[in-house]
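Hey team,

Sharing the NADH dehydrogenase [ubiquinone] 1 alpha subcomplex assembly factor 3 run so nobody has to redo it. Sequence (130 residues) first:
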Amino acid sequence: MAGSGIVIRAAHYPGRAPIEAYGNGGFRFADMSHRGSLLCLPSGIHGWQPADPIALTAADFDKVVAEAEGIEILLVGTGEEIRPLSKELRAALKEAGIAADPMSTGAAVRTYNVLLAEDRAVAAAFVAVD
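Structure output:
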């Protein structure tokens, strides 16, 4: 009986949706839940695993830069506390034409939902919080 194991796929929701709740290491949106961090991009909502959530790097945002054309502002939820973005990361995003705004994950979720409701070209990177 080949193929009877569980297939793990990259988490992806192919649309834009407000974040209904966050905490306990994950998020709720579109009547679903996701454990871990998220990228909310024009192509949809993607599971995201930054190498080090405390020290985000330009490589963590490759998928964001790839979709830069559809993004005016990137909200970066850095966890419980606001953490500045590295000079390297800010330069990579600026080169792609993306204005990035770091804030706590809670503030980023609230701001994302408002901008999404206004149909703005917003994207977000949310580090999960407990």
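The longest strand covers residues 19-23.

Ping me if you want the raw files.
A.
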